[in-house]
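If you are new to this repository, start here. Below is one unmodified record pulled from the training split, so you can see the exact layout before writing a loader.
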Amino acid sequence: MAHSHKHHHSPRNGTTLAFWLNLIFSIIEIIGGMLTNSTAIISDAFHDFMDALAIGAAVLLEKISGKKRTSTFSYGYRRFSLLSALTMSVFLLVGAVLMIGTAYDSFLSPKVVDSKGMLWLAVLGILINGFAFLRIKKSDGHGHAHDHNSRAIMLHLLEDVLGWVAVLIGAVVIYYTGWYWIDGLLALAIAGFIGYNACKNLISTMKIVLQSVPENVNLQQLHLELKSIDGIEDIHDLHVWSIDGTYNIGSLHAVVDPNGKHAEADVLLSIVKLMEKHTIQHPTVQLEERKGNCKLIAC
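And here is the target side for that same chain:
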């Protein structure tokens, strides 16, 4: 068997700062939501608090994932991040359902809210989440791509910025019109948005757990390109799955021409390079030499 191991260590600069900013601001939101009597802000406080926990878990699990393999965990600790993703997604989904009930009551029976307080909290939310987003985006000064955790955190922060822009617009409308039902409408929208993303994350995580082909790998295209390599007669038992959504594993059997002009080592190298090109960091290849009706396995 031929194995290829590549371990990438992306920078963690900025994620710890994003964690503390989200945690502190979620506490500010809870207090501000109670003072302004805004259901929308209290709902978003729950969202930001869960984001802070998710970022904290991402930072912690990124450190754990760097631990060496053991006789118990032969692939290492990368899959531990899935436990956090599953827990967070379920918790967010349950919380979203509860928030929808509260938001619906607020929409049917509007309460007087402090639109000026909402406005200032929205501005603060845009500034803090926007700063955290830019901090993570610029954290890598070496031109390397951000890892899965960093990209996910950046997406969360960008979503928060857009959510606060909606709250800002709602606060302005309430200030000039006195339509307090808009607060309940915003809360419903935020809760629905949280529920939608929680379901999407849950489905995505379950696909990894069930070892589906990663979304960034085109299995049919990979199969065609493998068969086109000089010296290969056939490809079968091609499997690709992911450990944690970023580290992909692939295995295959390749039937080679024993009388071909290409050495098995060259064919093997071409296969490994092609699989790595298709974002498969851990390829395992079994070569089979066809001799009449017999196959000689060369590993």
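Two things worth knowing about this chain: Residues 4-11, 141-146, 292-299 have pLDDT under 50 and may be disordered. The helical segments are 15-36, 39-64, 80-108, 115-137, 148-177, 181-209, 219-227, 264-277.
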